[in-house]
């Protein structure tokens, strides 16, 4: 047969050569008899050898019948077919590349063949084909990628090993740029990375590592946007190693691509945020996720707050949706060293395959939706909640105008977060609420609430301030919204104060355990004067009198004891300015809900005569155990450093007679207790006024001068106190009456 073929070649008798090949194919290789098929395969191989370099002209006729025998049920026939194709390819060399796809398809099937001899033969053919591809510069990568994309999803271990080996070969060829087609095969690579075979996983790890190195070398040639969604999906894999590898890729993508990744922020945050609460068993994933989170956050800039229509947006595939057909992998190994956690963010903000500089629009709605979901989910870990609050704070700093569109929907969630078990979460929540309450972007033209026509999503709770005419005088409103000593608070400040008090009213445990902590932190973050002024104004019209009394007591304790309020105490102590007197009057009217706190406020502001007048009214009040307990606490406070100036004023008996009378009044209210003994001993130390006289009697009383300058109508304040106490008395009688009726019903 070879001699015959060589004669035809010498005669250039093409038709006879084709005739010989046709007979070998149709009558032998494709025969029903197995021995005929073997003979046909041997004959085709011999024919190819005889043709030599001219075999390239007849490759289609030579290869097709051999590939058909790859599917033969007889393993010996499959082996003969593999051997025949090896000889054909060896002779033709580079001429077989136009037929590469069919050869690759056939080899991928033989790679999973159960017969070891067939598999061994296919490996020899595979190595030969790889050598040919490596040597040639005519490989059709574009035509091959669809087949590779299809076969990469095979579940057979040997087929996967075959696929990865070819990817490694193609990646190593300088003339073949497989990186351009990485988006086509990246998902399949992550699928293979979850294989049960350690060897296959290691091969896939190497392949991914090589791709990542290439990406770092040539970031301008990488299609980051087309691979972002793939990474988002695999960053949420159940297997730790798959998740770690995908997260490492995501970290590099964010740092290399910069703002190109912003349109995918919501998907990235969905994958990254839960990882921040991982324990030490997943420490590596947690660390890389934290770097991703920080890097992504730094991509948001103030320019993102500009009008959307003024910025041309970048055409990038949308965020991943539930309809996407990408399946989730099961396992993974890391594609690179985990020690490279130090990041540098000095990368260009834009990458494009062309030289154009393309602007990217921030998908703020999607980001807020993800943050909202993670903050509302009670099963989310503490570190994730902290990260969410940091993100929201960062967005309010960088893009306040856009963020205030979402404030009404976020507000109830932020208020609920104040009940969190973690102090750190509450601190971050308070920082965010303080920023919302003080940001100029939150100012609206209406009084204390946001505009009804604002472009916001409706929240589950109505948070607008109820409009009650005549409740706020123009002076108190002016003093609340804009104090000369503080910057103007925005429309959400008063709204925040109202809803914070509502929260305390509905959750008394929150008030008891965290109330003081929350208010003290707010006094640090915002202006203490505005906070006390607004809360006092709100409590003045509180219908739940018992809560109002409790809240006033809490605020009074904070005012008298917290180091954060030192400046406010000094301001109230002297009442030198109209603002301080306005604040005192506002506090006084609300403090009247609690008689003892009202007296302590008078002590703080050195209104001793009025304190004495109030104590005189105590005889008309219902003296309860709680009342006496509060008097006891006031006596203890008088002995604290806060009232050092008051104790020193006891030396000036002549100018402070009402102070001494007020203290004696408290003493008379107390039963024979430790507080009684304490105050009694203090009053015993008051000196004889005759012994304390000095030669200089020309100086007027400082107390009289300050009181005269205050210009406060104390008669009206005293009448207001009586009015409020009568309300409390009626409320107690009503509660007692309802309790008595309930008892009668039970008896009946």
From TrEMBL:
GO biological process, one term: phosphatidylinositol biosynthetic process
Keywords per UniProt: Endoplasmic reticulum, Endosome, Membrane, Microsome, Repeat
Endoplasmic reticulum keyword on record: yes
Vacuolar protein 14 C-terminal Fig4-binding domain residues: 508-686
GO CC terms in record: endosome membrane; PAS complex
Subcellular location: Endosome membrane; Microsome membrane
Pfam families attached to this UniProt entry: Vac14_Fab1_bd, Vac14_Fig4_bd
Positions of the UniProt region annotated as Disordered: 307-329, 440-483
InterPro entries: ARM-like, ARM-type_fold, Vac14, VAC14_Fig4p-bd
Entry's family note: Belongs to the VAC14 family.
Cited function: Scaffold protein component of the PI(3,5)P2 regulatory complex which regulates both the synthesis and turnover of phosphatidylinositol 3,5-bisphosphate (PtdIns(3,5)P2). Pentamerizes into a star-shaped structure and nucleates the assembly of the complex. The pentamer binds a single copy each of PIKFYVE and FIG4 and coordinates both PIKfyve kinase activity and FIG4 phosphatase activity, being required to maintain normal levels of phosphatidylinositol 3-phosphate (PtdIns(3)P) and phosphatidylinositol 5-phosphate (PtdIns(5)P).
Protein's UniProt name: Protein VAC14 homolog
Species this chain originates from: Nesospiza acunhae
